[in-house]
Amino acid sequence: MPAGLERALRRRIRSIESTQKITRAMELIAGSRIVRAQQAIAAAKPYTDRLREVVSELAADPEAARHWAFAAEGPRPPSEGATVVAVLGADRGLAGAFNVLVHRAADELISELSREGARPALVVVGRKAVSHFRLQGQPVAAHFEGICDRPKFADAKKVAASMTELLGAAGTLYVVSTRFFGAGSQRAERRRLVPIERHEREGTTVFEFEPGPERIMDTLLPRWSEAEVYLALLESAASFHVSQQRAMAAATDNAEELIKTLRRQMNRARQDSITTEIMEIVGGAEALRRAAGAEAPARADVYFFPEAS
Predict the structure, then answer these.
(1) Helical pair 213-295 and 98-115, crossing angle rounded to 10 deg
(2) Which candidate, 163, 175, 161, 170, places its Cα nearest to that of 195?
(3) What is the DSSP string of 61-111?
(4) Cα–Cα distance between 255 and 15 in angstroms, integer?
(5) Structural Rg of the chain based on CA atoms
(6) Which pTM does this prediction carry?
């Protein structure tokens, strides 16, 4: 074994143990944030669901077909308004494949829109997503950082206002984010928010809108988009914390396995060192014994016999 190997292994073990403490602490922090994020989602869902119901009822009204936010199936032609893609990512890494999946979904959508002749304007949330698109040379119309871990409704209003400003009238709006279905299920996906799909009203219930579906939709659309963006930000944050907790738990376990392997190597190196020292001592003692035997003078055997009386 090379000299100093045991010392080098000991230093490496101490370094990995320090890293393991950090990953364990990050795992615990992410676990505590998951609970808080789930509570925020549960608090925001009733409001968003109710707005969706109202928008759905408006979409089912024949008069609503004249509003630019409602349209037939399929994307609008590029000549009809702007195309906006909102990408909700994260500010930090160390969360497994979270950022990679969001970026991949956004890249696929942008490629599809480009093939159709559209030039989408990007609204990006998260430092990692901003870096990703800038590295690709993709222009970013608006970006927001520092709101991914604990998004607030005020942050959602800023993002939604930026999206609406770029969208204008008769535009198309997509949102790419990670949907949170539970602690064990998250999925990066894209959704088309505008134009809103129209469905036939089920049943015989008929609603009368005053002052009319179009005017109501003009007032409701900003609030609905803010609620949708806020819920998407909350789900993205919860998904990020779950991914980070899993990644840090895996890193902690891997560090423990690596420490065990290095300790076995260190013990083997120590045993080899001890064995080598013993062999050197034994070899030196044997050499000294042989040298002492070679230098001693030859001894004559003398016998004495008693004299005869």
Answers:
(1) 130
(2) 170
(3) SGGGGGSTTEE-SSPPPTTSS-EEEEEE--S---STTHHHHHHHHHHHHHH
(4) 10
(5) 36
(6) 0.79
3-state secondary structure of 142: strand
58 and 220 in contact (C-beta within 8 Å)?
A: yes
Superfamily of domain 11-199+206-253: ATP synthase, F1 complex, gamma subunit (3.40.1380.10)
Q: What tokens were used for 145?
A: 């950082």
**What confidence tens digit (pLDDT) does each residue in 171-189 have?**
788 999 999 888 788 888 9
The first and second tokens of residue 163, run together, are 């999206």
Rounded to whole angstroms, the Cα distance separating 183 from 38 reads 9
| pLDDT tier for residue 76 given thresholds of 50, 70 and 90 | low
89-136 pLDDT tens trace = 998 888 888 999 999 999 999 999 888 888 888 999 999 999 999 998
Longest distance between any two alpha carbons in the chain, whole Å: 159
Which is nearest to 82 in space by CA: 162, 138, 190? 162
What are the residue ranges of helices labelled H in the chain? 5-60, 98-115, 127-135, 153-167, 213-295
Task: Tell me the residue type at 181.
Answer: F
